[in-house]
């Protein structure tokens, strides 16, 4: 599991705002999954969480992307990826941009509506370093799961809703934001060789 689990660091609620945790606990059906507990992740997140941690810790391998459905989507404030190859490009680009990248403390919540189906939420802090400058980013990762595979992956920076034509008052502004994220993704996808897996290190 992650460095956070191994080190036994303080619970996430002590490091970031308690508001997200309270909101989760108030929602019927949601189950808190304590990654520091001996029981480990819940059923829904058990096979998915290790790969997601590898992606954010800049340790992604081709096998980690097997948790996604072929037509899965990934979206954050900078990019909107469609399909596994574009998702690969998005995460393979992290070590190219940042000299250091890892997920710090995190709290996992899951709502399994039926076996292999539901949603996983990861309330977390991401740590990056670029040009010698440290960047700490509060984030809420939302994973929609169907038949045991991630079909939608959203990374909400500062836990803010992504701008699109449905979430802003002026649909034209939302559509422009969507177009900008798609353009960024296509540029990144091209630069990263269209999702080509890196050669294994010898």
UniProtKB/TrEMBL annotation:
Residues 19-34 have a biased composition (Basic and acidic residues). Residues 1-38 are annotated as: Disordered. Residues 1-17 have a biased composition (Polar residues). PANTHER family: NUCLEAR TRANSPORT FACTOR 2 (NTF2) FAMILY PROTEIN. This is SnoaL-like domain-containing protein. The lineage of its organism: Eukaryota, Viridiplantae, Streptophyta, Embryophyta, Marchantiophyta.
């Amino acid at each position: 599991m992650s460095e956070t689990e191994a080190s036994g660091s303080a619970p996430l609620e002590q490091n970031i705002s308690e508001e997200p945790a309270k909101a989760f606990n108030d929602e019927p059906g949601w189950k808190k999954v304590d990654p520091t507990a001996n029981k480990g992740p819940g059923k829904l997140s058990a096979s998915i969480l290790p790969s997601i941690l590898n992606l954010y810790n800049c340790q992604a391998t081709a096998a980690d992307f097997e948790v996604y459905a072929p037509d899965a989507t990934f979206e954050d404030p900078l990019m909107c990826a469609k399909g596994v190859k574009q998702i690969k490009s998005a995460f393979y680009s992290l070590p190219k941009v940042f000299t250091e990248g890892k997920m710090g403390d995190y709290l996992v919540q899951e709502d399994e509506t039926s076996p292999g189906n539901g949603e996983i939420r990861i309330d977390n802090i991401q740590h990056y370093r670029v040009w010698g400058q440290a960047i700490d980013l509060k984030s809420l990762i939302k994973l929609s799961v169907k038949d045991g595979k991630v079909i939608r992956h959203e990374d909400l920076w500062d836990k803010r809703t992504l701008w699109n034509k449905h979430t802003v008052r002026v649909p034209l502004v939302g559509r422009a934001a969507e177009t900008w994220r798609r353009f960024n993704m296509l540029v990144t996808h091209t630069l990263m060789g269209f999702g080509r897996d890196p050669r294994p290190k010898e």
